[in-house]
C-alpha cells in the first residue's frame, strides 16, 4: 500500500508539471489558434540558463528569474519569426513546421556550445534527501514543493485570466479577434503578452522538472512538450482546468505503469489515454465543441 501511495504522489507531482506545460500551450492557442511545438526547447533553455547562473554563484532566486525571463524573451522571438508571418496566409499550417524548426535550432545551439551531456542542477528549495511524512508515508519534500508551486501558479493564472482586464481581453481575442479590435482591444499587444507569458511558464516548468531529475539535459524538452500537448488535448484544448486534470491523470498513469510494469510504458500510456478520451469525447474532458455558423 505504501508503494502505491508513493507512486500516486510521484505521479501527481510530475503530472502538475505536465499541466503547467499544457497551460502554456493553451495561452498561445487562445490568441492565435496555434501552438508552439518548440516550447520544449524553451523549457530546456530556461533550465540550462538557470543552472549556469547557479554554477556562476548567483543567488537561486536571481538564477531562476534569469532562466524564466530568457524563456519569455525567446518565446517573443518564436511569435515574431515562426508564427506571426505564417498567420497572414489563411489556412496555413506552416507554423507547425516552423515552431519545430525553431525548437530544433535552440536545441542544436545549446548542444554545440555546452555539449550533449546533462548539466547538474542543484536543488533550489530542498535537498533531494529531505522528506515529509504524511499518512505514514515518506514523501519527497522536493516533489511536494514542485506540486505546490505548479498548482499555485495555475490557480493564480486562472484567477488572473478570469478577473483581470488582460484576461478578459485574451478571452475576447480568442472568441473573435476582429470584433475585439473593433471594440478597442489592442489585439497585437494581447497576442504578444500571451506569448511572453507562455514562454515564462515554459521556463518555470523546465526548472521544476530539473528539480525532480537533478539535471538540465539539452535533449529533454521534446519529450516533455509531447506529454504537455497530450495533457492539453485530453483535458480539452483551451481549458485550464482541463490542462490540470489532463496533466495529473497523465502523470499518475505514467508512474503507475512504470512502477508495476516498465518505465518504457510511460509514453505508451500517454497515447493510450489520448486515444481513449478522443474516442469518447473528441473535444477533450473539459473542452467545448465548436460550432461553425455559415
Describe the protein's architecture and organization.
This protein is mostly helical. The protein has one domain. It has helices at 2-32, 39-55, 60-87, 94-114, 141-163, 165-175, 177-182, 187-213, 221-235, 240-260, 266-280; strands at 119-120, 131-134, 137-140, 215-216. The longest helix is centred in the first third of the chain and has 31 residues, at 2-32. The termini are far apart.
How is the topology of this model organized?
Elements: H1 2-32, H2 39-55, H3 60-87, H4 94-114, E1 119-120, E2 131-134, E3 137-140, H5 141-163, H6 165-175, H7 177-182, H8 187-213, E4 215-216, H9 221-235, H10 240-260, H11 266-280
Antiparallel strand pairs: 1-4, 2-3
In short:
This protein has 294 residues and is mainly α. Helix content is 73%, strand content 4%.
Major β-sheet strand ordering: 1-4
Principal-axis shape: globular
- What does the main sheet amount to? 2 strands, antiparallel
Strand content: under 5%
Summarize the amount of helix as a percent range.
Answer: over 70%
The SS-based structural class is mainly alpha
What are the secondary-structure elements, in order, as H or E? HHHHEEEHHHHEHHH
Tell me the radius of gyration. Answer: 19 Å
Residue-averaged pLDDT: 84
Number of DSSP helical runs: 11
Q: What's the end-to-end separation, in Å?
A: 56 Å
Amino acid at each position: 500500500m505504501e508503494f502505491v501511495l508513493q507512486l500516486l504522489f510521484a505521479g501527481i507531482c510530475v503530472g502538475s508539471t505536465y499541466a503547467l506545460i499544457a497551460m502554456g500551450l493553451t495561452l498561445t492557442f487562445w490568441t492565435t489558434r496555434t501552438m508552439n511545438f518548440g516550447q520544449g526547447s524553451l523549457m530546456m533553455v530556461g533550465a540550462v540558463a538557470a543552472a549556469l547562473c547557479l554554477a556562476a554563484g548567483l543567488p537561486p532566486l536571481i538564477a531562476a528569474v534569469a532562466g524564466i525571463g530568457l524563456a519569455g524573451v525567446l518565446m517573443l522571438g518564436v511569435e515574431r519569426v515562426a508564427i506571426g508571418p505564417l498567420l497572414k496566409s489563411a489556412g496555413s499550417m506552416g507554423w507547425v513546421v516552423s515552431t519545430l524548426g525553431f525548437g530544433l535550432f535552440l536545441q542544436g545551439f545549446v548542444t554545440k556550445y555546452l555539449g550533449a551531456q546533462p548539466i547538474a542542477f542543484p536543488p533550489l528549495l530542498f535537498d533531494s534527501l529531505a522528506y515529509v511524512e504524511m499518512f505514514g508515508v515518506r514523501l519527497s519534500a522536493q516533489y511536494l514543493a514542485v506540486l505546490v508551486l505548479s498548482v499555485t501558479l495555475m490557480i493564480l493564472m486562472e484567477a488572473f485570466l478570469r478577473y483581470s482586464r488582460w484576461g478578459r481581453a485574451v478571452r475576447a481575442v480568442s472568441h473573435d479577434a476582429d470584433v475585439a479590435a473593433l471594440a478597442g482591444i489592442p489585439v497585437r499587444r494581447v497576442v504578444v503578452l500571451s506569448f511572453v507569458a507562455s514562454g515564462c511558464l515554459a521556463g518555470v516548468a523546465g526548472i521544476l522538472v530539473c528539480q525532480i531529475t537533478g539535471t538540465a539535459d539539452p535533449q529533454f524538452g521534446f519529450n516533455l512538450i509531447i506529454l504537455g500537448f497530450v495533457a492539453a488535448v485530453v483535458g480539452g484544448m483551451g481549458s485550464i482546468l482541463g490542462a490540470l486534470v489532463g496533466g495529473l491523470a497523465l502523470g499518475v498513469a505514467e508512474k503507475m505503469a512504470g512502477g508495476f510494469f516498465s518505465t518504457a510504458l510511460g509514453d505508451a500510456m500517454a497515447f493510450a489515454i489520448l486515444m481513449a478520451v478522443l474516442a469518447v469525447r473528441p473535444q477533450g474532458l473539459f473542452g467545448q465543441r465548436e460550432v461553425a455558423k455559415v
